[in-house]
Structure formats: C-alpha cells, structure tokens
Amino acid sequence: MERKVNIVGVPSEIGAGTRGASLGIEALKVVGWTQHNPLFKHYPIQYVPHENDVLYDESPYRHAHYIDAYTRIAHGISREIEKSLRTYTRNVVLAGDHSTAAATIFALMRAYPGKRLGVVWIDAHADLHSPYTTPSGNMHGMPLALALGEDNLACKRNDPQAETIECWNKLKDLAGGKHILPEDIVFIGLRSFEPEEAFLIERNHIPHISVEDVRRHGAAHTVNQALQYLENCDIVYVSFDVDSMDSAISKGTGTPVANGLTAEEAQEINRLLCENEKVVCWEMVEINPTLDDKGNRMAEVAFGILQTAIQALEKAAAAVLS
Known about the structure:
The protein is α/β, with parallel strands linked by helices.
C-alpha cells in the first residue's frame, strides 16, 4: 500500500531553556530499533537544517534567546514542511523544542491558501508570549503568539533590543502577513501559564479543555468538543507537546508539569483527532531523553502515540480517497 503520510524531522532546540530536545527524534528511533519495529523504515524521516551549534555561545538577545539563528532557520523549516504538505495528503512533524511550531503553522497557511486553519494545541503551556512579555526569553514559549502575529503590548513588561524586534517582525511575516485567528485555537491540557497569556486567552475567548474535563467526559467527547469549536475551519493542525502528559510518566521533557494527561488519554485523543478528515498535519515536540528519570521512558510512551497517530492519519487519508 502506498503511504500517504510523510514525516518531517526538525531537530532544532535553540528555543528551549534546557538542552537535549534535539535528541528526541533519535530517542524515538532507539525505541523502534529496540522493539524491532520498522516504523521509521516504512516512514523515513526527512530532516531539515538546524543551527544548534549556536548554543555553544551565549545569546545576546535577552528577551528572545537565539532569535537571530531562529530567524535564519525558520524560513527553511517552513518551506520544507510546505513542500511535504503539497506532496502528501497527511504529514507528521517531529520537532525538538516547540518554537518551530510557528514555522509549521505558516507552512500550512502557504500550502493551503484560502483554507481556514484550526489549531488544536495539546500542551501544559499556552506558548502565547512575545519578546515584550516573556519572563524567560525562551522562544518555545512564543510560537502561538508568532502564528497570531500578537505582540501583546497591553501586557508589556520588557523592552526588547532593536535587533530582537526586527527579527520578531520578520518571523511574523513568514506567511506573507497572514496569521491564524484566535477563535481558531483550542487548548487541551493547559495548566501552566502566566498572567500575560491569561489576558490573551480571556480577551479572545480561546476555549480550553482541561485535564479534569478529559477525565470527566472521556477522550471521544474531548475530541468532538475540540472539533466543534473549530467547525468553521477547513483544515486542522494538531500540535502535541509531550509535557501535556503528567510528569509522573517521566521527566523526559524540558518543562514537566504535574496533573497532566495519562499516556492512555493522550494516545486516544491523538488517535481520534488524526482519524478526522480535516486533520492534515500532526506534530509532536519536546521529548528530551537527557532529562529522563526512567531510562528512555518518555520516548517509549511517545513512540506508541506516534505509531497510533500515523495509523489514524493513513486511515483518514484512505477514507477520503475511497
């Protein structure tokens, strides 16, 4: 059977606050080898360039660390993902840190011009900061703000350098000035965010399905609710950060947070989402084997979710063609 799914590997970690997320893809491959599972033989990973070597030096940009390097690679990452989106009906992106999700979103907007894009953000964090509001300067806390073209000057706490602002504005223009709409985002598992992000969520009435909601109503209801929020969207992108899962599963991610999804809940939510015909791209990020306290446990859990997601995407693609 001809595969309809392609995997793009984005091993960049310059947006993270801790080191090691660039090894997440290799950690997944180790699981495949150990289990004698040919997933990556059937779905060879198409890697895109990174600039992780800049991490040997301190970034001069206090409010958006390594934004100069990020700006250099973002265009290339976005173009490679766009190329894959135009070639394959369903796409998987395996990334290091979550910052490059903005490049994925801009690629989707270019690959599907005229289509309204919905975003399901499965994450413990909102990732709605800008250089003007960030408390850490880490760019993996900024991809949704970038995709929205949102500076959030109403909550400004920082005075970024001129070079930072110049790069930030270039990044916001990766899709020719087009951005997603705040009403086309839904959060699942959100439980760790700052007041500046809460301001945007409340102002824009961005819906959030909590872990408690998932547990109370189940995965099927969660997915139906998320897709109902995005019913006016033509296509949907799912961004799955492994820190949406409970920190008890493992510490193998940069910013683990307690009281998260179980592995089973995460797997079922992602399966059901990927079976939906509107979902054209699924992304998994922030596996960091150097922080794992249980061998390679996070990657083992994530590998199962990845395999399930790919099977669901293939099923959905076949159903559309039949």
